[in-house]
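Risk register update: the risk that structure generation would not scale has been downgraded. Supporting records follow, first protein first.
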Amino acid sequence: MAGLRSIWKEDLWKIASLNSLSIGLKLVTGFITSKLLAVYIGPAGLALVGNLRNFLTSVENIATFGFTNGIVKYTASYQDQPKRQQEFINSVLTFLPIMALLCSLGIGGFASYWNAWLLEGDSAYNSVFFYVALALPWYLVSVVLTSILNGLEAYKKVVYTQIFGMLAGLALTVGLVLTTQTYGALIAVVAAPALQFFAVVFYLKKQIQGFRFQIHNSDLQNLSHYSLMAIASSVIGPLVFIAIRNRLILSSGMDAAGYWEALSRISSYYFLFLSTLIGLYFLPRLAKVTTIAEEKSILKSYFYQLMPVFTVGLIGIYLFRVWVVRLFFTSAFEPVNDLLLWQLLGDFGKGMALILGYRFFAYRQTQLFLFTELFSLASLYFLAQYGIQTEGVVGLMKAYALNYGIYFVLLALLYRFGKPVHR
């Protein structure tokens, strides 16, 4: 009992317990949203929403130059240098909003092209991209501001902004879907998270009050290493998923693509447990590591404390898969039950690899990250093409599981036999 109390007193579990409120709320809002989309737009509409979500992930990282993890790292690194930290924040808040506006113009100006590529060319959806263009700057700036808040290690404030964004986004999504079905669901993809901007500005009043228009070239130079890493993972990655989804639509139809999107949504809900804790707790600490012993201690807390809990959760989801799918979706999504095992196996490998991949961000190991990420994406693409050709959506899910198993083994070998990082 004393041992359990000592573990609970660690910062990791204090943050986890606080974050559990945000995760719980995310699950509730996710359940409502998923059920709403399943009832009102079905598998085919969900496939279109998935394409737009992947596209916006790429746009987010193009507009922010993939700086978000770098912003967390350097904001945390300058904690003992308030003046230098404010200068860094000034550089970020001068440069990136301009890029957000340029991306917004590009989306609105080429609406028909994006519609033809992502939404099957239905002319009724052209105007969706004008609304996306209006909401995008607010959304992108909120992403940047949240990264700054995260780098300041203001965990409670990060969680509070997430809670506000989820509640406001849920209200907007429900209203749009109930009134305009698929059309409203597409607009809500970007409009809902944009509302988080107002909460994060409230918590960054001090930093914003000290803001001046200035760009330090050294800041952009340091952050540029993260651009290459983000282009590989968060720009090329979603484009690969769009290509796979379009191939699946051609081969097996819109409904099959909707089943895959449903699996991705279920996955995103339980991955909140790992991804948010890595962003809140592990990345800022890895960024300040100075010895190999410190790094090992951080990795041990991940593999021996977090992963067992995550694994038990995956097993529970599989055992109760019929109820999970019924809860979040409708009877039209029953084929998801037979696909879920492969998704869970892939996500176990992905979860094991996640912290090892974040080491590359923390230590700015650009070349290693690019090699492993591009290898994984290429592997996923070609395995998926083969899987779809031979077994349709079942083959795709087997390819997903195999790919992330290979990815974890690769990262584990690089960690075991790679050269230690001396800070």
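Supporting record for the second protein:
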Amino acid sequence: MAGFALGAEEEQWCARLRTLSRERLRPLAEKGEPGRVNRPLLAALGELGLLERVFASGALELCLLRESLAYGCTEAETALALQGLGAHPVLAAGSPAQRERWLPGVREGRLVAAFALSEPGAGSDAAALELEAAPDGAGWRLGGQKCWISNAPEADFYTVFARTGEAPGARGITAFLVPADRPGLGGEALDMLSPHPIGSLSFDGVPVGPEDVLGEPGQGFRVAMGTLNLFRPSVGAFAVGMARAALDATLAHTAARTAFGGVLADLQAVAHRVAEMATRTEAARLLVYAAAGAYDAGSPDVPRRAAMAKLLATETAQYVVDHAVQLHGAVALRRGHLLEHLYREVRAPRIYEGASEVQRTIIAKELYRGVAAR
């Protein structure tokens, strides 16, 4: 990728993915129940080899995959991304036995994974989590709550972050792989604005042992941040995919919709707004690609770049979708319209995997760290 321009093969692959998403995956998504795991959709993602690509791809390819799927079917994109988020800690820090037991089913779309980090009182401040892992012989007993967990309570296993107390703050957290059938583990679905499944989890003395640890005890926060640094640019890619879909819909609508003796595109106020939407979308897209390229290159400034990419892309998508709705008028507010769907989808990415305010904090800390090092 020279100068952040995609090559012909990459552009063609993305075009095929957009078509596949629209023609093959969207019909499966439309048959699903909002707020529930769509297992037929996951099975199709596995059959098409797209879930395998989540684990075999670098950050840039993951971004292209998520952006292209989001353009044609946001549910397919989200189902794929949640599999990657929930299972990536197993790939990165799991034992050979853990990988062999769980990852083939995730890749095939048979097993559903979930990333259980957030809590009722520890969302953006993830290092303040309170789920307790109390010592119990050679293992631990988990006690407490998790909330806002995608794919809960329907997942087949959870990557759970709990406080084992080796040190205060982030240094006393351990990551565990917890199968859904462990005694004491319960949960319920939450009725959310966005259509993908989100729930809460309750841990009432859930037993876990050394064989369930991902990585090393006390190093779970590092596992969590390693996963989020990979997926943050691709959350931006998801947002860019939605922005591009909204922009293209707006171009088609304003070029054809007659008003005031011509078409909407003839009005300078409309044309300038569309130009702004397009410029912001392209800027966000390039920043996402740059962050992904930095991750693939092993750059030391990945946290800053990833935070910038997620921040700009998600805020841009909100802007573009909102203005697309405005330019379409009342028709975009009808249930079932593309923009009505995107309007509900676009709000959540500004919050999950680190809210916009958290991203700004990360960016500022990284910038001032650079000043102090001079």
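The mean pLDDT is 94. On this basis the risk owner (M.S.) recommends closing the item.
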